[in-house]
Amino acid sequence: MSEIVLISDNKRAVETASRILSMHEYGLKCASSIEDAEEMLNKGSFDVILFDFKSYNIDISLAVRKFQPVLKSGNIRSILLLDEKNINYNLLKYADGFIQRPFDDNLFYAAVYSQLQARCRISELVKNNNDLSKSLYQMNVLYEAGAQLTGSIDKAKLIDIMTGCLEQSLSLSLCYSLIINSASDIRLTIKSLFPVTPGLENAIKLRALLSCKNLFSISPEIKDINVSKFSRDPSGSFGLNVFGYDNLSVPVNIDNKFYGIIEVFRETDFTQDDAKCFSAAVKQASLPLESAVLYEDIEDKKDKLEKLEHVKSEFISIVSHELKTPLTSIKSAIDIVLASCAKEAPGAAEKFLDIAKRNTSRLEVIIKDLLDFSKIEAGKLEFKFEKTNINLPAEMVKNALDNLAKERNITINLNLASDLDSVYIDAQRIEQVLTNLISNALKFTPENGRIEVSSSEITGDDIRNNDFFTGLPGQLSGKYIQIAVKDSGIGIAKENWNRVFEQFRQIENPLTRKAGGSGLGLSISKRLIDAHRGFIWLNSKVNEGTSFYIAIPVMSDREIFEFSLEQDMAKSKQDKTNIALFSLNEKIAGGKSLTDTILREKILRGKSKYKDFAVIKDNRRYYYSYAADMESCVYVFELRRLETYLKSVQEDYKNCDIMYSSVLYPRDADSIEDIKAKLNQYKGISDEENTDCR
Amino acid sequence: MKKILIADDEADIVEILKYVLEPQGYECITAYDGEEALNSARSKQPDLIILDVMMPKINGYKISRLLKFDAEYKKIPIMMLTARSQDTDRAIGEETGADVYITKPFRIEDVSAKVKSLLG
């Protein structure tokens, strides 16, 4: 309802005004003195003030001038009730309107009404003006933020600029951003008006994590979050009540990858415009953020490339030295023999040819190591696994190196356990590893020393609890066969233990190297042992000696099967040949022809664990096996033989029992008879549900 | 008789060089690592030092620099052997004061000729 004040002590005027205004349901209050009026204006808010110039004892001119500030600040309209005779024209400019005497009811009302309308309009204008100002301000903030955003390529800084922009343009109570760069790099930044209590801080952590729970590809923990807090005004504090404020939030998605979340809180509600401003700020930051992410990626690749360049040039210079050195000896030795001086001295020719021959072998070893190394790096190293007793390669290597050892009066003792389980190994490669270990032992052991080669059975825990290994994941269970090569040589300091397996380690600092060699031996050995799913480590005391250990797992037939399956699949991918895997379980066969069942088009992801099987694409069709249907009977064939085989065995094996088979290649089996025979070999080996995972 | 110090950790190369140079009338002293080489150079005062770059304990460059910046030994000519033939290595070689720089594999006639030119 509109409220009007009449400043007058003229009884007649008061009565008339009351009558007219109450007819239209306006509220009227009367002040009979300036003090009264002042008190009224202080206590309430009014729309219009009527100043009566025909008051007896009120100095209306004074009142009009006195109340100007109040009128202006409150947007209160003023009307002068004029005296018929004395019209103070000077004062007319202080008022918005005037009513002349004698009072006409309608005119009186009309005058008041029009002032009330004017007041409304002006109020609206003021509000619009305020809104516009605010929008303009927000735009300016966004504009500045935009300028800043384009100047930065750092992701964290960009988010910071964006949240700063939001803080400024929306007068926020609190704003937080949770950004996840990796499992170990999670940052929560809280910017607020007042400092936050520890309770609120923890609540924010939880809230942020929960709201993004399903969007993370990693599972972060609250304790992994790094928190930074900023507050503007230390005089207050924010507690959990902040969650009762109005809020807006937005996920941080860069290039379709989810990085985190930003949420803002404000005590007063957010308007539509605020929400628009919020989205605008976020949108503005999105393109620079994509660039920042791309930049990070490029930086990373650049680092890798630089490292690679460095390794490459180091490789080239080191390798050329290691190759040229024995070549020098060979070439010069042969030159000497061919030159006349050698012919004069009888034993000389033999001596130098011997030097040449020895260095040729040395060169051969280095070149072979290099070739192995590059094959390993390219993933093209091939293995031939078989179940063997590990003592055999050990003996072979000992015999091969015995003479070399004797030259320096070093004895190699064999202490091989006699009842060891067989292991699934590529004997030649194990020989290679043992040759490497024993020749290293020879190299680093002074004359008259001792080398002992022993074999024994150990457990997974023995490996895990070793000094050498820190932080091996998971439980290692099962049996392992260990071979130890122990020497009485110069030893290796503990800080170097891990570096020993790095490539070129030995000649990493070529100007202080101790003995020749390719520097690749142990690195290659490690890869070879890794390929056997084994472990290699050492123990050593400087000046007392070093022991190197390798441990190969003892695999059950089931594990051997999975292992070789993995290898075959990897190989087929390399060679781009085709392998099909399928089951002859009757559930699959039931009703339909095996060929039909298998020849349906499906694509499955390949995994090396038992339950899922791979489908390798044939140029024309896909073959598959349903893990769910499959029990344990699996055959592996080269694809071109598959159809033939399938047609032929359909009858024979449709009532197949649970049977476990190892890998059969066509080259192992040239006829169906062969295949049947091989299958019979494995018949009766039961399928166990619990496999150890290595 | 002129003395030549042959320093190289490759025993075969030392033997080859010795076999070639001794009949030419030079007395050959040998050293198989950097420390030995430096000590021999200082104590035995050879007329020529044939030095391999890559040696354990102290490398050839360092030895060359140490000797060349020492008034007492700087007159002894130094022949550096190395497998690295990159230009930078050559530059380092020349910068450290080696008089002659030979890359491996070398021809023994070349070595003989260069020794002769350095020692007369």
Tell me what the structure shows.
- The complex is a heterodimer of chains A (694) and B (120).
- Chain A has 694 residues and is α/β, with parallel strands linked by helices.
- Chain A has 19 helices and 19 strands.
- Chain A has helices spanning 11-23, 34-43, 60-66, 68-73, 105-150, 155-170, 198-211, 272-338, 340-344, 346-377, 391-407, 427-444, 460-464, 521-531, 557-575, 586-589, 594-598, 639-653, 672-682, and strands at residues 3-7, 27-31, 48-52, 77-81, 97-99, 174-182, 185-192, 225-231, 246-254, 257-266, 386-388, 411-416, 423-425, 450-459, 479-487, 535-541, 545-553, 579-583, 634-638.
- In chain A, the strands form five sheets. A five-stranded parallel β-sheet of chain A has the order 2-1-3-4-5, with helices on both faces. In chain A, strands 8-7-6-10-9 form a five-stranded mixed β-sheet, with helices on both faces.
- Mean pLDDT of chain A is 76; it is low at 507-515, 578-643, 649-673 and 682-694.
- Chain B has a five-stranded parallel β-sheet, with helices on both faces.
- At the A-B interface, helix 8 and helix 10 of A face helix 1 of B.
* Spans where pLDDT lies below 50 across 5 or more residues of chain A: 507-515, 578-643, 649-673, 682-694
- Look at the helices and sheets of chain A and give the structural class: alpha/beta
**First-to-last CA distance of chain A:** 84 Å
E-strand count of chain A: 19
Strand arrangement in the largest pleated sheet of chain B: 2-1-3-4-5
Strand content of chain B: 15-25%
Largest sheet of chain A: 5 strands, parallel
Lateral arrangement of strands in the main beta sheet of chain A: 2-1-3-4-5
Residue fraction in strands of chain A: 15-25%
Q: How many helices of chain B? A: 5
Estimate percent helicity of chain A: 40-55%
Q: Which stretches of chain B are poorly predicted, pLDDT < 50 over at least 5 residues?
A: none
Structural class of chain B: alpha/beta
Number of E-type strands of chain B: 5
Mean pLDDT of chain B: 85
Percent helix of chain B: 40-55%
Identify the biggest protein-protein contact and residues per side: A-B, 28 and 25 residues
Radius of gyration of chain A: 46 Å
- The N- to C-terminal Cα distance of chain B equals 12 Å
Instruction: Give the oligomeric state of the chains in this entry, treating copies of one chain as homo and distinct chains as hetero.
Output: heterodimer
